[in-house]
């Protein structure tokens, strides 16, 4: 591949990270209140933005695959699922987001915009990561014990054509957007 698809240098990561942080902050995702409102099913903006990103990126990937620009079997790494380890990780990050109101990316956006709670959350991420790494040897065998699907993409796992999986993702986004449109309008009116 040629530039920019084949360029993976540090500068691209820095530039894309800054753009991503800027977009997060301008969307209001640098606020713990926005993220905890999603967890309380009161504000669906986070879901809509993240699911839109999934639909757009998966659509782009499927299109590049159809055009022969990407060979999924050769060019992409699809990890195997470890059910116990993934479940534990999901619970830990879910509890962290519910308590702190941030995920790793939004906490960095909060820090860069001067929020003290974002800095405290980021310190918690670092301490939690160090603590988990220190104790991981004792749970390693358990976490890797129950292996799930081995390197399967969603369409391979579901035994469905790629276009149908993408269509289901798009339909999910549109249905959630339709069902929550009134809640978003009401929330907007209550904050003005």
Describe the structure.
By secondary structure, the protein is mostly helical. It has 10 helices and no strands. α2 crosses α5 and α5 (83-100) packs antiparallel against α7 (116-143). The mean pLDDT is 83.
Question: What is the element layout, followed by pairings?
Answer:
Layout: H1 10-26, H2 32-39, H3 45-66, H4 72-75, H5 83-100, H6 104-112, H7 116-143, H8 154-158, H9 162-179, H10 181-191
Helix pairs in contact: 1-6, 2-5, 3-9, 5-7, 6-7
Please outline what is shown here:
The chain has 192 residues and is mostly helical.
Largest sheet: none
Relative helix content: over 70%
The overall pLDDT average reads: 83
Number of strands: 0
Please give the oligomerization state of what you see.
single chain
Report, as a whole number of angstroms, the end-to-end distance. Answer: 49 Å
Q: What is the N-to-C order of secondary-structure elements (H for helix, E for strand)? A: HHHHHHHHHH
| Strand percent estimate | under 5%
